[in-house]
Write a structure and sequence with these properties.
The protein is an alpha+beta fold. It has 2 domains: 31 residues; 91 residues, Nuclear Transport Factor 2, Chain: A (Roll). It is 37% helix and 25% strand. It has 3 helices and 5 strands; from the N terminus they run H-H-E-E-E-E-E-H. The N and C termini lie far apart (68 Å).
Amino acid sequence: MDRAKLGKLLMIILGFPIAVLILSNCIANYIPPTEAYKKTPKQFEELFNEKMAQYGMSIDVEGGEYSFTNAPRRTVQIFCEDGSKVSCTYYPTGTGSRSIIQYLVFEQELSGKENETVYLEKLFAL
């Protein structure tokens, strides 16, 4: 067998599985996660707005800028009907739209007024 033909045959035999692997990874990246515990920022926003509308709360996950200390994170404001200041910091696996949220941190500024609404209790019930 000719060296050129043998080289082409080896390239096809070795290159085909690699091409299939790369193609399957690209396709898998377009499928959103379906596990309940894995959410992209957009999926989290939809779920949050759906569940917390009854309490007069909504969130826009694209509202803040990413900051990078040890890992990417984004702090966004949670909009409350009564004007309370509640924020959510989420730590995704990356900055892309398909990154998965690893964990969340909710914070609320309290003024100490009587009958002030504490939203964190409602958030933890989510």
